[in-house]
């Protein structure tokens, strides 16, 4: 055997003995996942097939708080719930790009665009309260319910 082939053989045997389970350290967060799940990501597939992966451990200097979303997506694309937080979605888009998941990137882009449109529609529907003069503005007392109307007219 050539030296590289021996290493590859050792790594393959070692993985099969442990049912293809990998330990991952992603930005300080520890994960355990099956190789078949991780290989759904082109980036992870390349990293896991490297002959330098002997003991099913992989360290990536990425955002570990977002990697759980990546694992959820890899596990079942159809049941994946996009995070409601827009900032998390933006950061997750970058992670999806890194891990080679263009459909997740597109899903997040659509979600962000839809939410931006919803926000614009909501803002357009709101009736802005603008006082015509300083006298018409409510005093702090009125804001907290301390003032009462002087008169009331009922129209039937």
UniProtKB/TrEMBL annotation:
GO BP terms in the entry: protein homooligomerization
Q: Please provide an example of a Pfam family that matches this protein in its UniProt record.
A: BTB_2
Source species, domain of life: Eukaryota
Q: Any idea where the Potassium channel tetramerisation-type BTB domain is?
A: 23-104
Which PANTHER family does this one have?
GH08630P, POTASSIUM CHANNEL TETRAMERIZATION DOMAIN-CONTAINING
State the protein's name: BTB/POZ domain-containing protein KCTD18
Name its species. Answer: Cladocopium goreaui
Output the lineage of the source organism.
Eukaryota, Sar, Alveolata, Dinophyceae, Suessiales
